[in-house]
Backbone:
């Protein structure tokens, strides 16, 4: 119980730092000094002080959506294991709950974007729905095959039961980390799929959906997107936990090194790639899905 | 460990199926060459002998250095545009590739019931052959046809390592020489075609008459 609360607090408080680190590295790679690492915290504090104004055409959906999205992010982050701490919620089959709570958050996000009645936000909502459709199989193929290997269906059990003498596991790490990385990029609207810094409505996906929100609502939206990014980063890091099972100190080391490496990798990818054309994105996601299918094939025939 | 390299090999096939650039094909060829060389070195890692090192070195020389550099030279000389021209949509092509890979894996597992073979290297090699043929069918640019042929060749190589870990070395060297000569001849043919026609696409060749 205590372990679960500690891990939840770690996830919530470290998530703006992760986004700040990515922005800092991105600035360094492009030759700028960049904002301080703690800039996302300052922005969140600034937003929480401001007054909330809703569009006059909006209904109650816009009022409840940010809170439900934020709460579902907190709920999801209490499923994910941090290091070897047992998460707050852990039962057989929680990977499916994990996927569908994220789906609920996405549904409310789309609904609240449609609710405001701006045509730009409707466009963003349509895009989000389309790409989410392609992104869902990636998660189930890659996490599903990991679940098959370990023989468990709970997030904590999966990564705590895999033995390293399992001959195929090194392959799975490589293949799964590629597909989960692409999934994280899509779900968190990072560079090759969506540019988080652009402010041109025609090219945005996630940012356009929160265009008309302000104050406390915007704070909740921003904070939940930071938490979402951290959740996917934690899934990516979890693949490496079985290497440090003998020794808890090694587990913490893996966590820190993975966190740093992942932020540098994300920043590097965002620096060297440009945003894809909208019609190419399904192709990109199908590529990740095919990697996931390959994963399942390997599991089936590696005996 | 063999499985590991074979899976990376299959990943490169998926990459080939969605990429839009001619240069990417050349780098995939280089990558596959490195993988094949590593696969051949692997069995001899603890019992070093001079004969074990000859074939991997030749592969590195021909498949990683000579052929890709030669293709790059052709691309530069003939001023080939960097985008490939697919005849069908890339998305459809990727779906076809995924379906074929699944079928091939299933087939291989059926075959492996009766014959002793490594399933994953065999299936990856088999998929490389099929993807190579698809590249030749579904692309317009002639230089991509050369790349497709080379991917097919890599697949045959991978299959041969999956069936028997040590083929007679002279045969392998002979195959490598053949491949190199074929690529060389294709380069010369492409040069000739470029003298006669404007582009480098199959559609121009369709109008050839006696």
Residues:
């Amino acid at each position: 119980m205590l372990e679960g609360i500690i891990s939840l607090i770690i996830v919530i408080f470290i998530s703006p730092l992760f986004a700040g680190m990515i922005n800092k590295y991105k600035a360094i790679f492009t030759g700028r000094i960049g904002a301080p690492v703690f800039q996302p915290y300052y922005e969140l504090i600034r937003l929480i002080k401001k007054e909330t104004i809703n569009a006059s055409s909006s209904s109650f959906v816009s009022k409840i959506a940010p809170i439900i999205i934020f709460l579902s992010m907190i709920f999801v982050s209490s499923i994910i294991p941090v290091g070897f701490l047992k998460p707050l919620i852990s039962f057989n089959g929680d990977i499916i709950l994990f996927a569908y709570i994220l789906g609920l958050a996405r549904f409310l996000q789309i609904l609240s974007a449609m609710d405001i009645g701006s045509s730009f936000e409707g466009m963003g909502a349509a895009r989000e729905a389309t790409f989410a459709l392609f992104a869902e199989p990636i998660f189930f193929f890659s996490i599903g095959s990991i679940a098959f290997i370990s023989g468990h269906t709970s997030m904590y059990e999966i990564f705590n039961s895999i033995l390293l003498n399992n001959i195929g596991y090194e392959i799975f790490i490589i293949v799964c980390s590629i597909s989960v990385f692409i999934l994280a990029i899509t779900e968190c609207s990072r560079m090759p799929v969506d540019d988080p810094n652009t402010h041109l409505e025609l090219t945005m996906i996630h940012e356009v959906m929160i265009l008309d929100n302000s104050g406390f609502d915007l704070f909740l939206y921003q904070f939940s997107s930071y938490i979402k990014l951290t959740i996917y980063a934690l899934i990516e890091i979890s693949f490496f936990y079985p290497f440090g099972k003998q020794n808890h100190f090694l587990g913490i080391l893996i966590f820190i090194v993975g966190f740093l490496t992942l932020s540098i990798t994300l920043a590097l990818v965002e620096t060297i790639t440009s945003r894809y054309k909208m019609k190419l994105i399904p192709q990109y996601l199908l590529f990740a899905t095919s990697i996931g299918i390959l994963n399942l094939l390997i599991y089936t025939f590696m005996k | 460990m063999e499985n590991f390299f074979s899976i990376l090999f299959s990943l490169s096939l998926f990459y080939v199926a969605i990429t839009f650039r001619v240069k990417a094909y050349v780098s995939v060829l280089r990558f596959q060459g490195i993988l094949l060389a590593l696969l051949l070195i692997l069995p001899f890692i603890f019992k070093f002998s001079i004969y074990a090192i000859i074939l991997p070195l030749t592969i590195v020389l021909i498949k990683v250095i000579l052929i890709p550099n030669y293709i790059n030279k052709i691309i530069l000389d003939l001023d080939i545009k960097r985008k490939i021209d697919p005849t069908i949509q890339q998305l459809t092509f990727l779906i076809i590739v995924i379906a074929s890979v699944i079928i091939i894996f299933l087939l291989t597992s059926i075959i492996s019931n009766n014959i002793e073979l490594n399933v994953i290297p065999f299936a990856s090699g088999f998929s490389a052959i099929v993807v190579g043929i698809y590249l030749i069918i579904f692309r317009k640019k002639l230089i991509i046809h050369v790349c497709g042929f080379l991917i097919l060749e890599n697949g045959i190589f991978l299959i041969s390592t999956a069936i028997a870990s040590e083929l007679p070395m002279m045969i392998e060297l002979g195959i490598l020489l053949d491949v190199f000569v074929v690529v060389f001849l294709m380069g010369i043919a492409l040069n000739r075609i470029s003298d006669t026609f404007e582009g480098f696409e199959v559609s121009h060749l369709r109008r050839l008459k006696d």
